[in-house]
Amino acid sequence: MEAIKTTNLVKKYGNKRVVDNLNLCVPEGAVYGFIGRNGAGKSTTQKIVCGLANASGGEVKLFGKSIDNIENRKKIGTLIEQPGVYPGMTALENVILQGYNIGISEPEKAAKRALTEVGLGDVMKKKAKHLSLGMRQRLGLAVAMLGEPELLVLDEPINGLDPEGIVQFREIIEKLNYEKGITIFISSHILGELSKIATHYGIIKDGKLVEQVTAQELTRKRKDYLKVKVKDAENAAVYLERQLNVKQCEICSDQELHIYDCFDTGKVTTLLSRQGFELTEIYLHQQDLEEYFINLMGGKDNE
Question: What domains appear along the chain, each with residue ranges and CATH number?
Answer without folding.
Answer: 2-214 (3.40.50.300), 223-286 (3.30.70)
